[in-house]
Write a structure and sequence with these properties.
The structure holds two protein chains of two kinds. By secondary structure, chain A is of the alpha+beta class. Chain A is built from one helix and one strand, in the order αβ. In chain A, 33% of the residues lie in helices and 18% in strands. Chain A is globular, with a radius of gyration of 11 Å. The model of chain A has no long low-confidence stretch (mean pLDDT 92). Chain B is mostly helical. In chain B, a hairpin with a 5-residue loop joins strand 2 and strand 3. In chain B, helix 4 runs antiparallel to helix 5 and helix 5 runs antiparallel to helix 6. The chains are: A alpha+beta, B mainly alpha. At the A-B interface, helix 1 and strand 1 of A face helix 1, strand 1, strand 2 and helix 3 of B. Strand 1 of chain A pairs antiparallel with strand 2 of chain B.
Chain lengths: 33, 150
């Protein structure tokens, strides 16, 4: 089975999840084109 | 990053275990303006309150991305004055990725964390000596130069 990073697409949701999991956030700004 | 680094299984496992990953387009509003993003890829480590602690711009291979994240985690702990946790992250970086571009900065912040938690200057002097011996051309060796006088 293929594995890949499960990116959050919303920063607020990521920060809320990070608070719950007590982890930092890796924020990646990318060029999707 | 999509062709080489992010499909790497070690990278996938590490990111899942250590951080919450979020990916936004370079022109996402208001975030790109809030973080003053002008080029991609820009990678930023945030604490769980949203505060920025470390960033890089440009491609990173897997063997550079993972220590960069560990450095960001270590600096997050350091800047929140959680020095024991900072030392743990930075020591892991130096054990697992001693040849990475992030290693000299990890030596520097590890020493400062030890100093801040003990108020003893010896770790600062030892850091300079290690940087001078192993990373003589690093900017962090230059930044630690005053500690040779301790």
């Amino acid at each position: 089975m293929e594995r890949k990073i499960e990116w959050e697409k919303n920063l607020s949701a990521a920060i809320a999840r990070a608070q719950g999991e007590n982890k930092p956030v890796l924020l990646d700004f990318h060029n999707p084109n | 990053m999509d062709a080489v680094t992010y499909p790497n299984l070690d990278v996938i496992q590490f990111i899942q275990g250590h951080v919450v990953p979020v990916r936004l387009p370079f022109d996402a509003k208001p975030e790109a303006d809030d973080f003053n993003v002008k080029w991609t890829p820009t990678l930023i480590i945030l604490d769980h309150g949203g505060g920025e602690h470390h960033r890089t711009t440009g491609f990173l291979a897997p063997e550079e991305l993972l220590p960069m994240i560990l450095l960001g985690i270590g600096k997050t702990h350091f800047e929140r004055e959680a020095f024991t946790e900072a030392i743990m992250s930075l020591d892991t970086l130096l054990k697992d990725y001693p040849k990475s571009d992030s290693a000299p900065e990890a030596i520097y912040y590890g020493a400062v964390s030890r100093y801040k938690s003990t108020h003893k200057p010896q770790p600062l002097k030892e850091a300079y000596e290690k940087l001078q011996a192993e990373y003589p051309s690093s900017e962090w060796t230059k930044r630690a130069a005053p500690y040779k006088l301790l």
